[in-house]
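Sample entry (182 residues):
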Amino acid sequence: MTGKTVLSSRVEMSEVMTPNDANFLGKVFGGKVLALLDLVAYAASSRFAGTICVTASVDRVDFHEPIEVGELVSCVGVVSYVGRTSLEVTIEVSAENVLKGSRRHTNTARVTMVALNEAGKPIEVPRLICETRDEKIRFLEGRLRREIRGVQRVEFDRIASTFREAEESVLDELLSQEKLLP
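Predicted structure, serialized as tokens:
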């Protein structure tokens, strides 16, 4: 399978935030931002893979600053790491006050997508061609995140299984502790 560049996956979407997008504090609802992130992740990953991609997990979404109603929100997504059938999309979100001309970085997210064939089964994706130093670093960071998730999953399952096997008095003792890890 041939490779594709990071740039070939780049997607930018922008939308003005309206009162319908507001939460109870009058700021843009986090769920609205998450929905935009999912759309950008779909578009970037499907463009790169050349097939439908679906969300497998949201690794992390950092909310740096609130977004105001009336601001223009722009999301830029690129494929930053690929496995065999999965793709990590990194998305940077900014909000612009179009009246003042000021723009600020509000969110960063990483979403893992899986490429599917017509039967809905995972299929292999193209290799990612990293052309710049930053792209190489982001790829290696994505690989590291994937490896850490695997180690974390095994360690979590190991420790959590001890809870299910523990007697009630042990559970009560664990509940009284501030930390479960050494």
